[in-house]
Amino acid sequence: MSKLLTRAAGTVAVALLATGLSPASATTQATAAAPSGNRSLATVLTSDGNRFDRNAHDYDVTTEAVLAVLEAKPDSAVGVLADGSQPLTAFVPTDRAFRRLVHALTGKWVRSERHVFEAVAGLGIDTVEQVLLYHVVPGSTIDRRAALASDGARLTTAAGPTVTVDVRRSPRRVVLLDRDPNAYNPRIVRFDLNRGNKQIAHAVNRVLRPADL
């Protein structure tokens, strides 16, 4: 696993060029003071032993999806998550978020995280890659404070399409508007994973959809 992430980090610059992205690709720059840490989000995601469990609030399905894409496509732009020197903001779906997606697509509730992952992987590696990239905003380290001050910001994702930040006041929360107008929009449920590093993440309770499903 560590060799896979290292190889991905080594090819991330090529992958970003291949997708036509630049470090300043966010439509609206909503950054706080630049952090200095270089710990990657891939390191954070795999720090719990990289195994499925019964905790619906962590990120095992996301972790396995990232590793599956990099195994199949080592030069994928998803590899940016393994290069802590590259600033980015990621919106990381919880395991429950992926379970909700599988239910929305199949009409069935899948119990185990492993079976949820298998259902997601069944969409095809290219689809999984695009979904993951739609959760990544390269070039910007957007922390909680910046997010709450960014109502209406349109963030260009690594997949290309934008995500719009919708800050709601009562109760105060951050909702993300994706490309599927018929689905519930994801909400940030935990802020500032990997705080102090150039790569930061926020947990979301639903999967962002890059297209109308």
From TrEMBL:
Residues 48-208 form the FAS1 domain. Keywords: Signal. This is Fasciclin domain-containing protein. It comes from Nocardioides aurantiacus. SUPFAM superfamilies: FAS1 domain (SSF82153). The keyword Transferase does not apply. Residues 1-26 form the signal peptide. It comes from the Bacteria.
